[in-house]
Specification:
The complex is a heterodimer of chains A (218) and B (306).
Chain A lengths: L8 H5 L7 H15 L12 H18 L2 H13 L28 H11 L3 H11 L6 H11 L3 H8 L3 H8 L9 H14 L4 H17 L2
Helix pairs in contact in A: 2-3, 6-7, 10-11
Chain B lengths: L2 E7 L6 H14 L4 E5 L7 H4 L9 H5 L11 E2 L5 E4 L13 H12 L5 E8 L3 H7 L6 E4 L3 H25 L4 H8 L8 H11 L4 H9 L2 E9 L7 H12 L3 E9 L3 H7 L4 H4 L4 H26 L1
Parallel strand pairs in B: 1-5, 1-6, 2-4, 2-5, 6-7, 7-8
Antiparallel strand pairs in B: 3-4
Helix pairs in contact in B: 1-13, 7-8
Classes of the chains: A mainly alpha (218), B alpha/beta (306).
The complex binds adenosine-5'-triphosphate and magnesium ion (MG).
C-alpha cells in the first residue's frame, strides 16, 4: 500500500491548487468520508495505525489550506521545492486572462485522466455533463463550463492533446471563423472531449449542429 | 485475441456465478462468441444457472485426456453464441490441482477460439483461484455492500496484487539481491509494500519498470445485491482509494440491485436477464456489460498506439 508520501496537500484532498475555500471544505468532507474509521469504503483496508496516520495527514492538509496565511507559506514551500509551478502564488492577485502554460503544464496525461475521473464522483460534475449530453445544440460555453467544473486549465488540455491554445479558446468562445473546418475540427473536438471524459461523438455532433444553427440564424 | 475475464470474490455466495452467466448471456446477445468456464473446482454449479441438467464431458475429459483439445468440451447453451465448459466431474481432490495440471488448463484456456472467455472462479484467496485470476489483466471482483464482504474483498485484492508482484519479479530481470530476498524460504510473510521497498533499496533502477508492470493490471469491481438505502458512491470511493494506494488500476463497473426474482429464476432454471430483461437489475447488468466492452476498446486502442 502506498501512503500519502510524495503527495501535496492538494493531491491528498484531490483538488487543483487554485481551489477556493468552499472547494477545499467540500473536498475535505469527501476525503473524510472515504478514510474515516466508520467508512465502509475502506473497511479493514488499513491497519489502524496506518489509518490514523492517513487521517492525521488529511487533518494537517485541511488545517493548512483553510488558513490563508498558512496556505501562502505552504504554497511558497511547494514552489521552492519545485513541486508546483510558481504561478500558483499569483492566485491572490486579481483575475488575469488565462495565462499560457499555467501551473500544471508538467502534468502527465495519466495524472490528468485520474484527476478528471475523480472529479466525476461529484454530483455537480456528473449532472453538468449529463445535461450537456442531453442537448441538441452544444455550445463552446457548455464545454468551458464543464472544463471549469472539473477544474482543469486550457493549457493542460493543450499539453496533452497538442491542440493549440488558440484553437481551444476559439472552440470555447464559439469563434467559428477562427476554427479549421471539417476533419480537423472534428479531431480537435474529439481530443477535447476525451480529456473531459465525455461522449465525444455526441459533443462533435452537437457542436457542429450548433455552428450551422448559429450561422443560419446569423 | 480472446479476452479472458476471471470472476472471483473474497467471500462465497456473493453472486459470481449469477453474474458470470448474466454477462456471458449479454455479451452473446451482442453477437460475441462467448464461453463460460466453470472453474469453481469442487463446488461448481454454473450449469444449473444455465439450465443445463446433466452436463457430460467437461474439464475432466480434458484432464484425463479423453479429449485432446479443450474447445471440444464446450457445449452450446440455450443462448446462441454462448458456450459452456463444466468442471463437474473433476473430483474433490482436484480442488488442489497439481501445478502442471493447472498450467495445462491455463494454456488451453488462453487458446480457446472465442471472443470472450469468462471464468467462474471460487471465492477466497487459495492458490488455484489466484492462479486462474492472474491469467488475465482484467480480473473482475464481486462483493456485496456489507463490512464482511468488503473486508474479504480487500483481502482478495491484496492477495492478487501480491501474487502479481511476485510474478513480475520472478519473470523479469531483477538483481539477485532482490530475487533472493523476495523468494528466500524464511521470508514467507512479506507483504506487497515490503517487496516494493526491497526493490527500491536493492534495485532502484527497476522502480519504474515495476510500477509500470503493476499498472498493467486492471482490477474491475462490481457491487452486487445492492439495496436502496446504501451509499451510491461506495464503489466510486473504493475505486478512488484503491487507485491511490495500489500501483495497479481499479475500475468500478457498477452496482447490481438486489432482486428476489434472481434466486427465484435460478430455482426455475431460467436465465434471469432473458426472463426479466427490463428490471433494474437487468439494466444494471447491461450497463456493466457495456462498460466492460468500452474499456476493452480503450485498452486495445491504447495498446495499438503504443
Ligand atoms: N442481485 C441479486 N439479488 C438477489 N439475489 C441474488 C443476487 N445475486 C445473486 N443472488 C443470489 O445469491 C445466491 C448466490 O449467488 P451465486 O451462486 O451466483 O454466488 P457465488 O458467488 O457464485 O457463490 P459461490 O461462492 O458459492 O460459488 C443465489 O441464490 C443467487 O440467486
Ligand atoms: Mg458460484
Amino acid at each position: 500500500m502506498k501512503s500519502f508520501a510524495g503527495l501535496t496537500y492538494y493531491d491528498i484532498l484531490n483538488i487543483p491548487a487554485n481551489s477556493s475555500f468552499i472547494e477545499i471544505k467540500r473536498a475535505y468532507r469527501d476525503v473524510l468520508a472515504i478514510y474515516n474509521d466508520d467508512s465502509l469504503a475502506t473497511y479493514a483496508l488499513f491497519p489502524s495505525d496506518e489509518r490514523d496516520n492517513l487521517l492525521k495527514t488529511i487533518e494537517g492538509a485541511f488545517s493548512t489550506l483553510i488558513d490563508k496565511g498558512k496556505r501562502v507559506a505552504y504554497d511558497r514551500m511547494l514552489v521552492r521545492s519545485g513541486q508546483v509551478d510558481k504561478s500558483i502564488l499569483s492566485r491572490e492577485e486579481k483575475k488575469k486572462p488565462i495565462p499560457l502554460f499555467h501551473g500544471k503544464n508538467l502534468t502527465k496525461e495519466d495524472d490528468l485522466v485520474g484527476r478528471v475521473k475523480r472529479k466525476y464522483i461529484e454530483k455537480k460534475v456528473k449532472k453538468l455533463s449529463k445535461n450537456i449530453l442531453s442537448k441538441d445544440l452544444i455550445s463552446g460555453n457548455d464545454l468551458e463550463a464543464l472544463r471549469k467544473a472539473i477544474g482543469i486549465e486550457i493549457s493542460e488540455i493543450h499539453v496533452v492533446t497538442k491542440v493549440s491554445i488558440a484553437v481551444l479558446k476559439a472552440i470555447e468562445n464559439n469563434q467559428f471563423e477562427d476554427l479549421p473546418s471539417g476533419f480537423y475540427l472534428r479531431n480537435f473536438l474529439k481530443s477535447y472531449s476525451e480529456i473531459l471524459q465525455i461522449d465525444s461523438q455526441k459533443i462533435i455532433d452537437g457542436y457542429l449542429k450548433n455552428i450551422s444553427h448559429v450561422q443560419k440564424n446569423g | 485475441m480472446p479476452v479472458i475475464y476471471p470472476i472471483s470474490s473474497g467471500k462465497g455466495g456473493v453472486g459470481k456465478s449469477f453474474i458470470a452467466a448474466s454477462i456471458g448471456t449479454l455479451f452473446a446477445k451482442l453477437g460475441k462468441k462467448v464461453v463460460l468456464v466453470d472453474l469453481d473446482l469442487g463446488a461448481s454449479n454454473l450449469h444449473t444457472l444455465l439450465g443445463i441438467k446433466n452436463p457430460k464431458n467437461g474439464l475432466n475429459s480434458f484432464l484425463n485426456q479423453t479429449v485432446k483439445k479443450l474447445d471440444r468440451v464446450a457445449v452450446p447453451t440455450i443462448v446462441s453464441n454462448l458456450f459452456f465448459i463444466n468442471s463437474l466431474y473433476c473430483s474433490m481432490e482436484i480442488a488442489n490441482l497439481y501445478h502442471t495440471q493447472k498450467l495445462k488448463i491455463i494454456r488451453a484456456i488462453t487458446k480457446l477460439p472465442f471472443d470472450y472467455i469468462i471464468l467462474d472462479l471460487g471465492a477466497g484467496s487459495n492458490f488455484n483461484t489466484l492462479d486462474f485470476f492472474s491469467t488475465s489483466q482484467e480480473g473482475i471482483i464481486i462483493c456485496t455492500p456489507e463490512p464482511t464482504s468488503i473486508e474479504n474483498c480487500f483481502r482478495f485484492i491484496k492477495a492478487a496484487y501480491l501474487r502479481k508482484l511476485k510474478q513480475i519479479i520472478k519473470r523479469h530481470a531483477f538483481n539477485s539481491a532482490v530475487k533472493n530476498t523476495v523468494f528466500s524460504p524464511n521470508k514467507t510473510k512479506m507483504e506487497a509494500p515490503d517487496i516494493i521497498d526491497v526493490v527500491l533499496k536493492h534495485d532502484p533502477d527497476r522502480e519504474n519498470f515495476l510500477k509500470n508492470k503493476l499498472s498493467e493490471f486492471k482490477f474491475k469491481l462490481i457491487i452486487n445485491q445492492f439495496r436502496k438505502n446504501i451509499d451510491e458512491t461506495l464503489g466510486d470511493k473504493i475505486e478512488t482509494v484503491c487507485n491511490r494506494h495500489f500501483y495497479s488500476n481499479f475500475q468500478f463497473l457498477g452496482n447490481i440491485s438486489y432482486d428476489e426474482r434472481i434466486p427465484e429464476s435460478v430455482v426455475s432454471k431460467n436465465i434471469y436477464v432473458n426472463k426479466y430483461p427490463y428490471t433494474t437489475s437487468s439494466a444494471d447488468l447491461k450497463k456493466i456489460t457495456e462498460k466492460i466492452i468500452k474499456s476493452r476498446r480503450l485498452t486495445s486502442q491504447a495498446s495499438k498506439v503504443s
